[in-house]
Amino acid sequence: MDDQSKEMKKDVNVIGGFSSGLLVSCVKIMTMLLVSALISYFLLDGYGTLAVSVGFSVLSSLFLVPMFISYEKKVTAQGQRIVTLQHHMIRTIADVIEERDASTGGHIARTADLVEMLLVGMSKMPKYSFLTPANIEKIKNAAPLHDVGKIKIPDNVLNKPGKLTVVEYEVMKKHSEFGADLIMRSIKNVEDKKYFSIAYNIALFHHERYDGKGYPTGISGDQIPLEARVMALADVYDALVSPRVYKEPFSKSKAIEIIREGKGTQFDPELTEIFINCISNRADM
């Protein structure tokens, strides 16, 4: 298992879930009870026994604990609303950027669905048991940012109605680095640090190849973050079955054939088999 997978496996956070902070809340409540007991003991020391002090503490806590729990729920709900707003804003930014690229309409939504499909298929294997619904949702929400760097690609290259020259292709390849830089500078302060890390890895590494012949860094195999290997399959498949200014869409069977040909060279071989199995059973993709 690569380092990124190990790190993701440790992530058991459920975004906005009250249960995710249950342990912290319990500690706070216990601390509250202890402090209340100590205060009441010293206040009543001259007037009653320890039992009376404890009774006073418990009685006061009957009022304090419900108030505390209500406050915790409100804070959690507010945090969830903020995270949801961040995701909507980020998705809107990705949609606006996609509108600049005349050839990729709907690409963001389709690739996000393909990423989710593949991750769900992977999660059924013991090796990928760390792909909980929360982690899958995190990666799916980050997927729309994979081409965010295209905002810095000139229109004459981005929307050229034909094959790019060698020089133009080198310019286009820069979008992965541009995207990672934009994410680093723009959303590094979001509450969900795991989401930021995933989005950064997807933007920077989704054009790397399993055999090390990709870009921008030329890393290979499991050195490529798992989410980027997943994104690569979704990105290429959608490009194959969608019309482009330079080609007609391929049929689903032809696209699957091309994906299979890239097994072990362009794509992670294990993920390729899972992807093909999943996509073959989906009539809507």
Give a description of the structure.
This protein has twelve helices and no strands. It has 285 residues and is mainly α. It has a single domain, classed as Hypothetical protein af1432 (Orthogonal Bundle), CATH 1.10.3210.10. The longest helix is centred in the first third of the chain and has 51 residues, at 50-100. The two termini are 29 Å apart. The model is unreliable at 4-21 (pLDDT under 50).
SSE topology sketch:
Layout: H1 3-10, H2 22-44, H3 50-100, H4 107-123, H5 133-142, H6 155-158, H7 166-173, H8 175-186, H9 193-205, H10 226-241, H11 252-261, H12 269-280
Helix pairs in contact: 2-3, 4-5, 4-10, 4-12, 5-9, 8-9, 9-10, 10-11
Terminus-to-terminus distance: 29 Å
Can you tell me the CATH class? Mainly Alpha
User: What's the overall average pLDDT, rounded?
Assistant: 78
In one word, what is the shape? globular
Q: What class do helices, strands and sheet pairing give?
A: mainly alpha
Q: What is the architecture at the second tier of CATH?
A: Orthogonal Bundle
DSSP strand content: under 5%
pLDDT < 50 runs, ≥5 residues:
4-21
User: CATH homologous superfamily name?
Assistant: Hypothetical protein af1432
Total domain modules: 1
User: Biggest β-sheet, characterized?
Assistant: none
